[in-house]
Amino acid sequence: MALRIQMHFTTKIIPYACLLVLVSVLSAVTNPFPGKKSKWQGFDAYKDGGRTIVAPNEAAEGKPWVWRARFFGHEPQFDVALLKRGYHLVYCNVGGLYGNDEAVDRWNAFYKYLREEHGFAEKAVLEGMSRGGLIIYNWGIANPEKVAVIYGDAPVMDFKSWPGPTNKGILKAYGFKNAEEAKSYRGNPVDNLKPLADAGVPIIHVVGDADKVVPVSENTAVAEERYKAMGGVFKVIHKEKVGHHPHSLKDPSPLVDFVLKHTSGKSK
Description:
By secondary structure, this protein is of the alpha/beta class. It contains nine helices and nine strands. Helix 3 (101-118) packs across helix 4.
């Protein structure tokens, strides 16, 4: 009786285990990334909570990638152009954290996952619009060896400029007791560019010269002057008589060319 029970158990379990393996393999082939699959700008996209990965139709050699910060899908010209060139596009939502240490930790974890589980390139192209500037710069400053290029679009580089040192979100995100502590803070991107300059990270910004939300004079202009003084490459594309919006460029070619020039890619 014991033998019959054991044989019955074995014949039931082994086929089921094989089935599980088969399902797992098929799932990995049809869905290489976790999350709900959909289409984005004609490409396969996978959304898993606050993380999104968009795959090119054919990945470029070395699996280069663009890491978008905030406002995923807004003015996507640059993202689409690089997807067509075989770059992956990823997004990790850290909204409301204003580039603080917790946001950097979340990005560290996502970076580790993409590198170890999916073989993405060691260095990412960082893209930040508006408040997204805080996280791309703070993460890049903490991990300069992992950054290929930085593209900032009307980026916030000093929270004292926007949203301001009295903003409740800033006080909470950084643990300041009051606005005076926020005003005296010297850890904003404009204050801490040396690690990026030492690593030779090239930077390009697109700004509207009439931007009153994130004034160029308090953000990009300060960073540009300081970065160039450190010997760094910092290019700024100015849009005359344009405010904070619209972001990006109708033709993203100058941005794409800059990225390709300063990476292993070649401008065409």
